[in-house]
UniProtKB/TrEMBL annotation:
InterPro entries to which the protein is assigned, alphabetical: WD40/YVTN_repeat-like_dom_sf, WD40_repeat_CS, WD40_repeat_dom_sf, WD40_rpt, WDFY1/WDFY2, Znf_FYVE, Znf_FYVE-rel, Znf_FYVE_PHD
Superkingdom in the source lineage: Eukaryota
SMART domains from the UniProt entry: FYVE, WD40
Domain FYVE-type: from-to ranges: 57-128
WD repeat residues: 14-55, 138-171
Protein's name according to its UniProt entry: FYVE-type domain-containing protein
An example Gene Ontology molecular-function term: zinc ion binding
Phylogenetic placement of the source organism: Eukaryota, Metazoa, Chordata, Craniata, Vertebrata
PANTHER family, A to Z: LD41958P, WD REPEAT AND FYVE DOMAIN-CONTAINING PROTEIN 2
Length: 176
């Protein structure tokens, strides 16, 4: 965990929504985090999972795999007589790579990426099926949630949305 005052520790990311996260609730008795978003998704995160910190993105003027220049590297483009490429970053190793060297996508739930993200080709080959196993469950609320309240004693989740609808969910099959 990150110590804000001490400015040290490990910061983890959890990416499981297609729109902004609007509400969070923590079920302490099961160590699960419930996140609700503007995409209508309810995501239940298992917080007992040992997650990895995402790498810092590395800076480079050329692809760190094939050495092709990026479009702002005029000197290398002129010297090699090649058009510069767009820079991307591998979400697993953080290297600056071109589109050709990062043509694959993968989920990396242990790093918080429940949806597929760009990875360099060599990292894609190294990711095992076990590393791709989800660490969260996804549920569609059918409305854009703006507020949530979880009653742990009953296992109920109360949501309200932009559609002016309040919904009461029995979360006991999910949060356990």
């Amino acid at each position: 965990m990150w110590d804000i005052g001490g400015r040290k520790g490990t910061a983890i990311e959890l990416q499981g929504h297609n729109d902004k996260v609007q509400a969070l609730s923590y079920a302490q008795h099961t160590r699960q985090l419930i996140s609700c978003g503007g995409d209508g998704g309810i995501v239940v995160w298992n917080m007992d999972v040992e997650r990895q910190e995402t790498p810092e993105w590395l800076d480079s003027d050329s692809c760190q795999k094939c050495d092709q220049p990026f479009f702002w590297n005029f000197k290398q483009m002129w010297d090699s007589k090649k058009i510069g490429l767009r820079q991307h970053h591998c979400r697993k190793c953080g290297k600056a790579v071109c589109g050709k060297c990062s043509s694959k996508r993968s989920s990396i739930p242990l790093m918080g990426f429940e949806f597929e993200v760009r990875v360099c080709d060599s990292c894609h080959e190294s990711i095992t099926d076990e590393e791709r196993a989800p660490t969260a469950t996804f549920h569609d609320s059918k409305h854009n949630i703006v507020h949530v309240h979880f009653d742990a004693t009953r296992g109920w989740l109360l949501t309200s949305g932009t559609d002016k609808v309040i919904k009461l969910w029995d979360m006991t099959p999910v949060v356990s």
